[in-house]
Amino acid sequence: MEKPYIDPKINIEPNRPVIALFSSGTTGPPKGIVHALRYFTAHMGPLPQEPGMALSHRPMQYGASLTAAVNAILRGMQLEILTPDAGPYQIWERLRQGGVTNLAGSVGFWVGLMEYFEQNLDGLPEEAKMPYTDGVRSLRVANCSGAMAMPTTKRFWKSMRGQPLQMVWGSTESSIGLKTGSDLDFIDSNAIGKPISNVEVKLSEGDHGEMKVKTPTMFLRYWNNERATREAFDEEGFYRTGDLVHRVDGDYIIQGRAATDIINCAGVKTPILDVETGLSKLEYISEACVLPVKDPKTGNRVAALVRTRLDRSQLTLQVLRKDLASHLPAFQLPTVLRVLGDQEHIPRTISGKVARQEANTLYFPQNAVDPSLENLPQEVQLDNFDPKAQLRSRRMWDTGGVQ
Predict the structure, then answer these.
(1) DSSP label of 149
(2) DSSP state of 221
């Protein structure tokens, strides 16, 4: 039997299909996404060997995991692959050993590491804790993707590293498109940064609207779905991301998914990310997500699903609204609340994104044909919501720019 070898005469065209990935399924059924060789090589040039070591901890069937691993190899870096079930303990122990320079993960990954440190490592004697903190400070690259990290998470890692986490925007269709810089701190902003090299971005309405991108790593087509492939691009060949974004001084700020991350209540549109950011600023909130709950009178209500550091009985909807009023305009304040119990968890996709439809079904179940607030579980707190009164501006900033 002949030994395997590389034939130097073989030349694979950059546009040749080489792999099919599947979307996360957060906005609909997962779609098969066909990529060409350029998905891996478009950002690669005649680069010198890059010193450092990338730590891979996610299953390789995910696009972000696979491309990160392949790119590390192409750049001549060391690549260490942990078992797919590696949890915060294994990650922290590997950081303690030193040598890791590149680490990337979802929001849930970085939150999990933060919580493990606070619960298990922060109370250690300084001499025992130092190898862990030194391991974090040695990270040259610390990327967070999949969803927007909350300010509490960003502050923790800024204090640990001396540099902020870099937020990365990308999609399975386009790969990485935008990234925040390591020299700028966007703790209280939902910034996704600037386009990386050779990526073009435009917004549907000038400085705001749906973000559309052209990347050298763009997918070829959806598997057996020509119609979806056509509808994914505009007339200029830009991919329609479905993300609502606005631009401030050259940086792009994400507001959420046009289809799923905007709650329309009595004709007033509330970005979910704005409310989640406001909730994260309350010291007694350790985890939160915001969901639309159907209301026959208003279309939808802004509902908060939270975990609190207080006793569950101490947190009422009235208290939450009062405390949030200093961070959010009146029309964004939640009018529905459910506080998670110790054994209850916010459902997430494998990539760490909140599975909002599943969360709705689990914690705010309603009749799909005839939804009513009256049938919600007794654990759900409701506000006697009057849209004419409560959506009327009492202060200049309460309108939040809504006309």
Answers:
(1) P
(2) E
